[in-house]
Amino acid sequence: MNEKSDRRAIGHDPFADMEADGWEKPSAEEVAPSEEEEMEKAAELVEMSEAPPVASAPSPAMDVEATTELASAPKTETVSFTEVILSDWLFSDAAHPGASYPRLRDFPTSQEAAKLLHDWLHS
Amino acid sequence: MTRVITVLNFKGGTGKTTTVVNLAAGLALRNARVLCIDMDAQGNLGTWLGVKHPYSTSDLLLGHVEPERCITPARKHLDVIIGDRHLMRAEGKLWRMGDDRVARRVLHYTMKEVNGYDYIIMDCAPSYSLVTENALLYARELIVPVSMDYLAMVGSRQVIDTLKTVGYLPDHELELTLVVPTLYYHRLRKDREVMAMLQRYFRGRISNPIRSNVRLAEAASHQQTIYEYAPHSHGAEDYARLVERVVKVAEDNQ
Q: ipTM of the predicted structure?
């Protein structure tokens, strides 16, 4: 990793001593995603795979980190399987270290996510 | 049963008023009966909703008039008690009451006369004061908007610390219902790091992020809620999801 990628934007964790101070961390039950959240995530992935592909190049404003990491993603055999695997990867911690929000929402629209996916598959 | 919620972060500019306005309006659109109380002398809540009224929160706290006379309709199903600069004077008078136990609970006692609402939502100033303490000792739930910066996290940490002293009083229950990430922009490393930290400590109590959206700021200047001003914007979408989450919290607890 280079110096730039090591850099942290937030240098101090203001919550770090909260536990010692009596704050109870969320229970395992709270941490586990609910069935509804799982369903929502699945629905988002389906929506993404069904979005019409766009042939034009990625916009210059596209997330540089995401694009770079996208290019180095492992390819798989079939398009449909690739889409599933890549969707999984695209919205995983590997693609967005530290991100905690559903990864699909890291893109302004599902169409943009589909466009990224399409461009990568056909590059 | 009325859900009494206070929205607080001790850092300014984290989206407290934006959250109160659009959460309240969203709940009202679902036909819930909602009352918003502005506990901030800036009076931004009334300004945003385009509401003027001769009686404000300071009149409520000082008992100048009956609580009902302080309430004014802002939208269908959405009423408001406006805040104004007189709250500063109210703060001084509360201090001079001499009995802390009473001074901290004036709102709690006064609002017992107010019925018929599904939600009462309070917008607090970003500072610790007797007025804020009145809100905390009246509310049963706490929502903390956290914008994507270090000082906002520090402000929310201060709220958590306050919760420990206020929330566990023998005859009062105040719980952290939700941490609401605001002004979120996924392309900024800073924002992703803040989200990760919030997730680490508050997971299960974190709402969907409210994405940074200029329409939200514009809506205030038009004195409209986000659903009126830009119903198809990200802001409207994100606040609609927050509304659903807030409703769901109650359903889950039943």
A: 0.80
